[in-house]
Each structure stands twice: as structure tokens, then as C-alpha cells.
Amino acid sequence: MRPVIGLTTFIDAKGACRYNSVSYTYIDAIIQAGGVPVLIPLIEDRESLLKYIDIVDGIIFTGGEDVSPLHYGENPIKEIGVTSQERDACEMYLFKEAYDLNMPILGICRGSQLMNVVLGGNLYQDINAQVEGSLGHCPENGDSSQVHHMVRIEKDTKLYSIFEKHSIAVNSFHHQSVKDLGKGLKAAAFSHEGIVEAIESIEKDFVVGVQWHPEALAPKHPIFRKLFDEFIKQCR
């Protein structure tokens, strides 16, 4: 059986119309790994969201807007990006329900940050403004299929068992990052200057978050397919 994988979405407003959207790179990565993607719309009705939890075998929390700093007790600094109360509320509820069920979860970019915040952690609202000596993590007009910087993967982590490498080159499109870790999480990878680039649960079977976008790299860099292969394996 091909496992059913839920994908969180974002609101794409075009004129008077509003759409729930997600990059096709996520869909393609799931299909290539042997899963069946199902898009989860941003809806307020909790009963409907629970139906999606019943349907799917695992969830990918996708990239996008900044997580509002109000969720970790801070006011926004001037460098904060666009936030979405609607998306935060929907995804936080989904994550809590899936996490409590020990459902396999993969967080990508914003998704990784969201995981950390829901579990009680916080974020650097803007790396360049708040981390002394920070390097480039969000290049202008970058190509998502191209690698941008190196990350160091910690031993004794799920990520190391997947990639079987101490370091890999990744793409990078984030101006925020994990600051203090949430409950039950550990850092699995770091950038050269010490920015947390991946997190994973020490309490659940498979709850992994990465700060880069492996779904966009996978077509040209097959090593990143390993992450989706393992995620789908866990979902089975």
C-alpha cells in the first residue's frame, strides 16, 4: 500500500480569489518516494482537520510565511516577514494532534520552525539582525535547485543514519531559525556559524525538521531523496 501523505498549504490570493497552494516540488518528491500526496487546506473547523488526521499516514509541514513571534512571547522586530494567523492556528492544531498520535512528521523550513515553537521553543526572528557573525542564509533570487552552503550533521541522529555523511551542501531560503529548542527536541545539524539547520524528536519515532528545502534539491541531487524515502518508509 502506498501511504497517504498530508501536505500543508498556504493562502495564495489572486485578485478577489483566494487559493490553497503548495509548490509542486513537494508533490513530486512524495510521488517519487512512493507516497500519495493529499493537500490539507487551511480551515478553522477542528472536526474537519481531524478527518484529515484519520486519512493520512504522515504529514509534511511545508515552507512559507514566518511563524508569528507572539506564539513564543515576543513582539515582532522590524525585520519580521509576512505572518498568517490563519495558517499558524491550523498547522499548530494539526501538529499537536499528529504528534500526540506518534504520526511520522517532516517539517521543512517554516515547518521545522513551527514544530519547535509548538513544543515550547522560540526562534531568531531574523538571523542577520540577531546573530553576530551570521553568514548568508537567504540569497536574493536564488535557484532552489542549487546548493548554497554546508551543514554539519550530528552523529547519533536520524538525519545521520539517513544521509550517512558528516556534512552536506544544502540550499537555503530562510531568514529565521531555531533559537532555544522545544521540549523533547535535539539539534541534528548546524551551519558553519552554529545556526540550527535540523531538529528531531527524542521522544517520537519520526519527527524531523530541516531548515533547507530537500524537495527542491531532490531532482538534481539524488542524496536528498533519501530523506523522503525514509519518511515514506516510516509512514508505511
Q: State the CATH class.
A: Alpha Beta
| Rg from alpha-carbon coordinates | 17 Å
Averaged pLDDT = 93
CATH-level-4 superfamily name: Class I glutamine amidotransferase (GATase) domain
| Count of discrete structural domains | 1
Number of helices: 8
Secondary-structure-derived class: alpha/beta
Strand content: 15-25%
Total beta strand runs: 13
Helix content: 25-40%
Overall spatial form? globular
Distance between the termini: 8 Å
Largest sheet: 9 strands, mixed
**Which residue ranges are poorly predicted, with pLDDT under 50 across at least 5 consecutive positions?**
none
What sequence of helices (H) and strands (E) makes up the elements?
Answer: EEEHEHEHEHEHEHEEEEEHH
- Annotated CATH architecture: 3-Layer(aba) Sandwich
CATH fold type: Rossmann fold
User: Main sheet: which strands, in order across?
Assistant: 4-1-5-6-13-12-11-8-9
What quaternary form is this?
single chain
Q: Could you give the topology of this structure?
A:
Elements (H helix, E strand, L loop, with lengths): L3 E5 L1 E5 L2 E5 L2 H10 L2 E5 L5 H10 L2 E4 L23 H16 L4 E4 L1 H9 L4 E2 L2 H4 L18 E5 L4 H6 L3 E4 L6 E2 L6 E7 L4 E6 L5 E4 L3 H4 L7 H11 L1
Parallel strand pairs: 1-4, 1-5, 5-6, 6-13
Antiparallel strand pairs: 2-3, 7-10, 8-9, 8-11, 11-12, 12-13
Helix pairs in contact: 1-8, 2-3
